[in-house]
């Protein structure tokens, strides 16, 4: 121990170091207060309001609004849309992730960028492009009219626009994960004589199942809740081409507040269920 | 190279990927470009320089910018609090952050409009105490976009804060830095690229946002009419050319802005030594 001149006595230095590693109590509590009130104002309040408004004229009015034929038709169309959209984009996500993470080829990063493209397109434009393709004045408009096929202002247009909007969800969850995992385990299985399909089912799938479910969950939430793109291609025909979000809009614009918020409460419930499942999936992923 | 020879399934997966991508994304999006070729330059300029169109661009981009800045500021605080402090109900708040992602935009729209309209819970309070009307003004659009933007900022900043090495803070503090110096000179520069990414995502989403905005905005031309709504209006009037011209312009501006923000991010990363 050489006698070096100390700038500060050690006890003071330790105290100061701790000070520089932790925020002062008043900073901590005011930041927590700001964060909590911000979340409360922008998230808890809206959630609470949906329930209050939906039940504002009593439980009976709520049930009446939900069991209206137009509401039921809207729920059916929303379910149908998700039922077609989610499996399609899931199969695509798995195939794209397999091709991108297990092989080297030219233009790979371009492909990854293109897959993300629908995220950076406004929902309204996503609807517009299908009107340009299949609308009465669109590229295939004459052909469709001649063959009496309806895509715009019909369920198939709604499904197409939703497939576009939710296109990247599953692929996006899988690509980084499978990249990180590497392919050693699969190579081991293959070199031991397993078939490609068996390798995928027995080796890859167990490793990616939580991320896959996570992607499916987000894809489904968006498919059921999409509004902008669907509203452009739907034509708002009551009982026929209104999905649940569009039905909510129509009711709201007609000042049918209970009807609007009854529909909204189902969608908010869907959001809450999505969040709960998402949290569970995150725990499962963290456990691995 | 051995890896591509033993792995099966390249042809079917890449084939399916490319066909599906082309059918669902590339061909539909290309219609926007081809359709606008049918317009000559003068017509295009005439549509875009229309006063109502220009003011909708101004409203869309300025509200998205302000909302992304506010969400960036508060989102950073929320991420900081959720990562660094422990308090009662933290897990609950943590799970709630993604609520705006999960909630359909139309629901968000009618809820925010109900809260902030002049007779609504907060709308009345704000008018009575500050004389500020939120609904049917650009301010209302900003509110809706803040709601939409929160998860983008929090979810991009959070992982960086979590992974941040406290040893760097220890080094700085043992060299005599104050807490504020540690934060502003050590922590913040490291989080800045992520914060910029969150800001960019929030901004890009805000410019194109439709469902959560239209109910609270009131959609008054020259005041609170956003570009996506104008596209819908043109379509409803069967003005396909107008809608296409505006849509393509908006798409190009958004891509250019995203590119600029990516460059900025690259520059910040380079400067702070993360590259």
From TrEMBL, chain A:
The chain crosses the membrane at residues 29-52, 73-100, 120-140, 152-171, 257-281. NCBIfam families: 3a0106s02, permease_CysW. Keywords: Membrane, Sulfate transport, Transmembrane, Transmembrane helix, Transport. The complex is composed of two ATP-binding proteins (CysA), two transmembrane proteins (CysT and CysW) and a solute-binding protein (CysP). InterPro entries: CysW_permease, MetI-like, MetI-like_sf, Sulph_transpt2. Part of the ABC transporter complex CysAWTP (TC 3.A.1.6.1) involved in sulfate/thiosulfate import. Probably responsible for the translocation of the substrate across the membrane. It is a multi-pass membrane protein. Residues 75-279 form the ABC transmembrane type-1 domain. It comes from Methylobacter tundripaludum (strain ATCC BAA-1195 / DSM 17260 / SV96). It is found in: Cell membrane. Coiled coil: none annotated. This is Sulfate ABC transporter, inner membrane subunit CysW.
UniProtKB/TrEMBL annotation, chain B:
The chain crosses the membrane at residues 12-37, 57-83, 95-116, 136-154, 210-233, 245-268. The keyword Transmembrane helix applies. It is found in: Cell membrane. It holds the Pfam family BPD_transp_1. It comes from the Bacteria. InterPro entries: CysT_permease, MetI-like, MetI-like_sf, Sulph_transpt2. Residues 57-261 form the ABC transmembrane type-1 domain. GO terms for molecular function: ABC-type sulfate transporter activity. One of its GO terms (cellular component) is plasma membrane. Keywords: Membrane, Sulfate transport, Transmembrane, Transmembrane helix, Transport. SUPFAM superfamilies: MetI-like. It is a multi-pass membrane protein. Part of the ABC transporter complex CysAWTP (TC 3.A.1.6.1) involved in sulfate/thiosulfate import. Probably responsible for the translocation of the substrate across the membrane. Part of the ABC transporter complex (TC 3.A.1.6.1) involved in sulfate/thiosulfate import. The complex is composed of two ATP-binding proteins (CysA), two transmembrane proteins (CysT and CysW) and a solute-binding protein (CysP). Belongs to the binding-protein-dependent transport system permease family. CysTW subfamily. NCBIfam families: 3a0106s02, permease_CysT. This is Sulfate transport system permease protein CysT. It comes from Methylobacter tundripaludum.
């Amino acid at each position: 121990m050489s006698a070096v001149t100390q700038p500060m006595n050690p006890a003071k230095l330790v105290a100061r170091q701790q000070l520089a590693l932790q925020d002062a109590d008043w900073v901590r509590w005011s930041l927590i207060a700001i964060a909590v009130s911000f979340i409360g104002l922008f998230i808890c309040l809206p959630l609470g309001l949906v329930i209050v408004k939906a039940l504002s004229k009593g439980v009976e009015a709520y049930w009446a609004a939900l069991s209206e034929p137009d509401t039921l038709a809207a729920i059916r169309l929303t379910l149908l849309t998700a039922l077609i959209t989610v499996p399609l984009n899931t199969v695509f996500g798995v195939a794209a992730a397999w091709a991108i993470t297990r092989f080297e080829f030219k233009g790979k990063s371009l492909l990854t960028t293109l897959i993300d493209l629908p995220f950076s397109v406004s929902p309204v434009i996503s609807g517009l492009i299908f009107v340009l393709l299949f609308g009465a004045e669109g590229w295939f408009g004459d052909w469709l009219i001649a063959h009496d096929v309806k895509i715009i202002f019909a369920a198939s247009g709604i499904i197409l626009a939703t497939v576009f909007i939710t296109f990247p969800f599953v692929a996006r969850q899988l690509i980084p994960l499978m990249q990180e995992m590497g392919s050693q385990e699969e190579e081991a299985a293959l070199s031991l004589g397993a078939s490609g399909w068996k390798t995928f089912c027995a080796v890859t799938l167990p490793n990616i199942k939580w991320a896959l479910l996570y992607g499916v969950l987000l894809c489904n939430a968006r498919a059921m809740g999409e509004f902008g793109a669907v509203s452009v291609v739907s034509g708002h025909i009551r009982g026929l081409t209104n999905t649940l979000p569009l039905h909510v809009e129509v009711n709201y614009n007609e000042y049918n507040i209970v009807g609007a918020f009854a529909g909204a409460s189902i969608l908010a419930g869907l959001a809450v269920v999505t969040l709960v499942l998402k949290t569970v999936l995150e725990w499962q992923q963290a456990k691995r | 190279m051995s890896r591509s020879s033993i792995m099966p399934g390249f042809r079917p997966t890449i084939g399916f990927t490319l066909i599906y991508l082309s059918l669902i994304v590339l061909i539909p999006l290309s219609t926007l470009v081809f359709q606008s070729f049918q317009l000559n330059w003068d017509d295009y300029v005439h549509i875009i320089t229309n006063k109502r169109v220009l003011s909708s661009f101004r409203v869309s981009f300025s509200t998205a910018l302000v909302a992304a800045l506010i969400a960036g500021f508060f989102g950073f605080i929320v991420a900081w609090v959720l990562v660094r402090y422990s308090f009662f109900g933290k897990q609950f708040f943590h799970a709630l952050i993604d609520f705006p992602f999960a909630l359909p935009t139309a629901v968000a729209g009618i809820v925010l409009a109900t809260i902030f309209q002049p007779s609504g819970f907060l709308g009345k309070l704000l008018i009575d105490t500050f004389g500020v009307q939120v609904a049917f003004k650009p301010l209302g659009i900003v509110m809706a976009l803040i709601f939409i933007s929160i998860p983008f900022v929090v979810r991009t900043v959070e992982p960086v804060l979590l992974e941040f090495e406290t040893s760097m803070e220890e080094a700085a503090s043992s060299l005599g830095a104050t807490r504020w110096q540690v934060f502003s000179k050590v922590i913040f520069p490291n989080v800045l690229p992520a914060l910029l990414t969150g800001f960019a995502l929030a901004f890009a989403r805000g410019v194109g946002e439709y469902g959560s905005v239209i109910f609270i905005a009131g959609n008054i031309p020259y005041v609170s009419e956003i570009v996506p709504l104008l596209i819908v209006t043109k379509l409803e009037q069967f003005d396909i050319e107008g809608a296409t011209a505006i849509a393509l312009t908006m798409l190009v501006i958004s891509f250019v802005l995203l590119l600029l923000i990516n460059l900025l991010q690259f520059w910040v990363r380079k400067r702070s030594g993360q590259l």
